[in-house]
Write a structure and sequence with these properties.
This protein is an alpha/beta fold. The protein has two domains: about 210 residues, Glycogen Phosphorylase B (Rossmann fold, 3-Layer(aba) Sandwich), CATH 3.40.50; about 160 residues, Glycogen Phosphorylase B (Rossmann fold, 3-Layer(aba) Sandwich). Helices cover about 40% and strands about 15% of the residues. Strands 3-2-1-4-5-6-7 form a seven-stranded parallel sheet. Helix 1 crosses helix 15 and helix 9 crosses helix 13. It is globular, with a radius of gyration of 21 Å.
Length: about 400
């Protein structure tokens, strides 16, 4: 059966969503797979990486301007979704007797929203997170006025997301938490949990470093990541500087905003390294990895990469939401600045605790989150739905 994999985010080993797309496409890859991917600065990388697919089509979407952004705002529509309706995808490329369309995120559904009923395919949406919950929780961190102004857009996004999942034959989610939410609107048997994963052959355990380096990684202009690392710098890092000698924070990720750069420039113990092609080299230098995320949805792929390399993780409960982790066994969970700082200090001071958390973390990802094992879930889904 022909598979059409449609995505806004290029399936490359870059940021969280792109990494998920990369591995899912990798395990579904065949001579019958056609990739539709948004044309971007990374398009050359896409064509080089996926040259063995049946075909690759790069499409452009409607150019963003202040005027059309205002046009959507005044209609209480979500601009980043609406832009995707205007694209140069040639629908004749999708004509086939039988096939599957895999929408790799909610945004890519909007690429074909207006023509979806004309396409007689089995339709799957991979919901990397619940977009409505992500936006709602983000707005709750803003001022009262901002929250009130954004409320119509939050409601609109909920409506659009529910409408989208009802048009699908099947929904993929990253966690049981997200499945429970979507099951309020569609039958539970139409939802399959395919968690985020890690390549355990690529991310191998390494020895503990002697440095007191804390590491955070993630796309830095993504609001939950930015909020989390700013929270850590302002509330947690000052406590650690008072109690740990030579404490250092390394921050990895694309697109660091000016706000973050200004904070880092005020403190010599903080280094923003930006995008690093191979994060394993930085993970080897880190003693402890953190996920101070306070809102959002989905699951944090970065935590799994930390764990795979034997690095103990300190996270907020929200940051680890959806992952089958156990506090004080394979991770340390802390939601207040003081508790978060104390968890890091305990790992530095207590070598037995450090070893326990690091060892159990690696065991967990090997058992539950290796991409090779996750691929079997996809295969079972295709067999169950008679798509093979």
């Amino acid at each position: 059966m022909k598979l059409f994999f449609m995505t806004i985010k290029p399936p490359l080993l870059r940021t969280g969503a792109s990494v998920r797309n990369y591995y899912i496409l990798k395990f579904m890859r065949s001579k019958n797979t056609t990739l539709f991917c948004k044309d971007s600065d990374e398009s050359n990388g896409v064509t080089r990486t996926w040259k063995n697919l049946n075909k690759i089509y790069l499409f452009k979407v409607y150019k963003k301007t202040i005027l059309n952004k205002l046009f959507y705002y005044f209609q209480f529509k979500i601009p980043y979704l609406e832009y995707n309706k205007f694209n140069n995808i040639d629908l004749t490329k999708l004509k086939t007797d039988k096939g599957i369309i895999w929408f790799a995120e909610l945004e890519s559904y909007f690429l074909l929203k207006q023509n979806l009923d004309k396409l007689n395919y089995y339709k799957i949406l991979d919901a990397h997170n619940v977009d409505y919950i992500r936006l709602k929780s983000e707005m709750n961190t803003k001022s009262f006025a901002y929250k009130m102004l954004s409320q119509p857009f939050v409601i609109r996004l909920k409506y659009e997301e529910i409408k989208a999942i009802k048009k699908m034959d099947h929904i993929i989610v990253c966690s049981d938490v997200d499945k429970k939410y979507f099951a309020k609107y569609i039958p539970e048997n139409k939802i399959t949990v395919i968690p985020n994963g890690v390549d355990c052959n690529n991310f191998k355990p390494t020895k503990e470093t002697n440095s007191n380096t804390v590491l955070f990684m993630g796309k830095l202009n993504y609001p939950p990541n930015l909020d989390g690392i700013v929270y850590y710098i302002e509330k947690i890092h000052p406590i650690l500087k008072q109690k740990l000698k030579n404490i250092r924070l390394n921050i990895l990720g694309l697109n660091p905003p000016k706000e973050l750069i200004k904070l880092a420039n005020k403190d010599r113990s903080i280094v923003i390294k930006g995008f690093v092609k191979d994060v394993r080299s930085e993970l080897k230098k880190a003693k402890i990895c953190i996920c101070p995320v306070r809102y959002g949805s989905g699951t944090r792929l970065k935590i799994l990469e930390y764990m795979a390399m034997n690095r103990p993780v300190v996270s907020t409960a929200k940051g680890a939401e959806g992952l089958r982790v156990t506090d004080d066994k394979d991770i340390l969970l802390a939601d207040s600045p003081g508790d978060f700082a104390n968890s890091i200090i305990k790992l530095v001071d207590d070598t037995s605790l450090y070893a326990k958390i690091a060892t159990n973390a690696r065991k967990l990802v090997e058992k539950e989150y290796d991409w090779i094992k996750i691929a079997k879930i996809i295969n079972l889904l295709f067999i169950k739905e008679k798509l093979l």
